[in-house]
Amino acid sequence: MSRISVKFAELEKKREGALIAFLTAGDPRPSLTPRLVEVLAKHADLIELGIPFSDPIADGPTMQKAANRALNHGTTTEVALRIIKKIRNKTELPLAILTYYNIVLRPGIRNFVRELASAGVDGIIIPDLPLEESTELTKAARECDIDLIMLAAPTTPPERLKRICKATRGFLYLVSSLGVTGARKNLSSKVSPLIGKAKRSSKSPVAVGFGISKPAQVAEVINSGADGAIVGSAFVEIIERNLVNEKKMLKQLGDFAKALKAATRKN
Questions:
Q1: Is 48 a catalytic residue?
Q2: Confidence band for 181, pLDDT divided at 50, 70 and 90
């Protein structure tokens, strides 16, 4: 079992969902990312790091600004890999990478995956990689014992959902709503039945992302049957609000992660 699968199994025994915390590597600057992850790792169950890309089509304004801050501070793929190695030296928490397919193709698929494995990465998420074009990356990931985590959307037809669920490893990333990433005041009433549909099709754990930004929303998706909740924009907004006060940034990140984690305990 992968480190991600082991973590979900441990949480299931404790009747807890997973808190999956997303940050963009290099935001607000490369040297600070390991410290931010260290704070989140006290409460989160899995860390998802974005490798910044200049044209992140799935990301809303908050994440786009985070990527720009990281890129402006020189965060290349190579820099992101160095950041990951520093994080891995400090924690055994599962680490997943989210990036876009151009980043993967540039050095070559196998070279990219091998570099991730060497850095200690456990999972890869590629929002712009369709199932039909994932064969080569799937093979390379399995050769390196890395989970290729697939995404499913509210509009995914049932037969296609079954194929995605069969292909995914680690967990299924279930997108809660159409559109781009970003905190939302309320989750759609369609999220609960969407989770039910995904759970019936998937043998892997199901984690819900896009729009989750409050402990009540975490509790809502966990108690609707999801195995994990993915929170990104809300963490990145804390970073953005405190760019000139890192002490306050770190405290608010820790306090917020603690509150979110408390909401993962199942009723």
A1: yes
A2: very low
